[in-house]
Amino acid sequence: MSDRFAGKVALVTGGAGGIGGAVATALAGQGAKVAVADLDLDAATALAESIGGLPVALDVGDADSVAAAVASTTDELGPIDVLVHTAGIVGGGGPLNGLPVEVFDAVTRVNFRGTFLITQAVANAMIAAGTRGAMVHISSAGAFSPTPGLGHYEATKAGMNALIRSAALELAEHGIRVNAVAPGPVDTPMTNFSAAPPEALAFWTERIPLGRIATPADLVPQVLLFASEDTRHITGTVLAVDGGQLLKG
């Protein structure tokens, strides 16, 4: 077992999900004390028990819930060194001219407002503790290359990228780094590509030069790299981990 994150406290949002769960497990395996934060507290508890972590209830779109999750993590584990923000939803799909405003509002609340709230809360906690920490957000290759029917989702990820760059600039004086990983499609319980009909799967795989849908495990090394001291001089970067999807526009 590596001790790369020994003694570090990591808060993982969406920690019971596909990407979040893989990251939380990897961080714990490398010595971190991990808070598994998720809207589904039962799932967060199950994962936390399996990795020796702390389950935390979290609705990232709710300011009080975010504040409580950060306080709980700090009280139980100590000052936060690493934030990995994976919580996000697609909320449905369809052309913008027919998209229900309720879908747009729900996705914006989680993906954009949630990014703002968790970044602000963790930044303030890090500053108060004097922690030179790292934040890693999960963005999307779709923020750079639009997909018909997903404009609402991709707009929130583009907004996330703008917030990340601003936060990186503003928090640099405190020694806090803010970066992101931007995957293409990832096979998780939310997307369930493994159960998709062949024609739907082909729509995505033919856009990817490397020829396959990513798995959460494909993202873990890059997330942990940004979270570690190995990237101590990198901030404000959004790294595509997309199998070459953006090369095709």
From TrEMBL:
Residues 8-184 form the Ketoreductase domain. The keyword NAD applies. Keywords: NAD, Oxidoreductase. The keyword NAD applies. InterPro entries: KR_dom, NAD(P)-bd_dom_sf, SDR_fam. Transmembrane segments: none annotated. It holds the Pfam family adh_short_C2. It comes from the Bacteria. Belongs to the short-chain dehydrogenases/reductases (SDR) family. This is NAD(P)-dependent dehydrogenase, short-chain alcohol dehydrogenase family.
